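pls ignore typos typing on phone
pyridoxal-5'-phosphate + seq
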Amino acid sequence: MRAAPPLFERLPEQYFTRILQVAAEARAKGGPRFIDLGRGNPDLPPPPRALEALRAADYHGYAPFQGEPALREAIAARYAADHRVDLDPDREVAVIPGTKTGIMFAALAAAARGDTILLPDPGYPDYLSGVALTNATMKPLPLEASAGWQPDFDAVAGERPALMMLNYPSNPCSVCEHEGTFERAVAYARERDTWIVHDLAYGFLAFDGRRARSILEVDRERSAELWSPSKVYGMAGWRIGFLVGAPELVARVRDLVDHTTAGVYTGLQRGLAAALTGDQADVAERRAVYRRRRDRLAAALPGLAVPEGTFYAWWRLPDGLSVTGLVEEARVGLAPGEGFGARGKGWARLSLAVPDEDVDEAADRLAGVLATSSGR
Ligand SMILES: Cc1ncc(COP(=O)(O)O)c(C=O)c1O
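k done
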């Protein structure tokens, strides 16, 4: 086995840090107001019930490392209601300090030095960061536009990966899981003794009558799921989330929590438990807001494929246009597609996690540049 390069050579440039830099530089230059659609940072606040529980917690001791039983029960109740999956809160639930940390824990739990980890290409760039910390070898799991951005398992038939990451609704491709994708993934994994970690960060954002399935509806032996309140409840800075499913993987991640972060602050746990419990009408309201923005963007921007889910749009850049050029000409920040993997080259991700007026203004400006460039 070839020796892996040292840690700080393996770590890629942090993609979103770079996007923030580009936005800061564009703002510093002056000129018309810069509108940043590069980052997915929700503009809608957390539900009042979560904020009240956080304030009421007023607790300052160490939290139980494995999370409060009431939170683990609230997680199980949410899965039963949303997915008809009955989780054992003691064996199948790990409370983690944000799913970004969970990506690294899952990779550490599944893959030893040199093992292969399959990452969707295009896919969320922080998989690369989290997994680089583990010393595993990363291989792309190709998603093709012509296949609705669903995985091409034939392309990786010769691999025996320790772990495969999946993410539907997909960041950045903005599509939902299509019928049979999870079944094919589980069949592939069973043949090769592979763990699957499915990232359901945008599970509440499936549009036009679609439902985002949990992979646990298909398999709970070798599949686990990451679940984040960052987008669904607008709690992105809270740094709390959970991993549910395959008991062996969950047990390893719980062990890593004990050894590293020692749990999550009690107030955050109580806030999350409150958010997960009771009437979820606010979640439907959030979905309606993002769908409205999606429709406005799709109507204004010619050639945009209408997103099936998430609060992003995945845009094939017309010939002659680049993200750098659009930042200059339209003063709109976009996330360059190649940062999501080799198959993202020529594409850009637009975030709808900004106020409606900004979506409208950005779409008008982009459409204006497009019209001028096609007449050049
Ligand atoms: C697909 C995906 N997974 C995970 C995360 C990280 O979420 P968290 O805030 O729970 O770390 C994000 C955030 O943008 C995401 O888009």
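Residues 40, 98-100, 124, 167, 171, 199, 201, 228, 230, 236, 241 surround pyridoxal-5'-phosphate (CB under 6 Å). Residues 180 and 224 are 18 Å apart (CA to CA). more later
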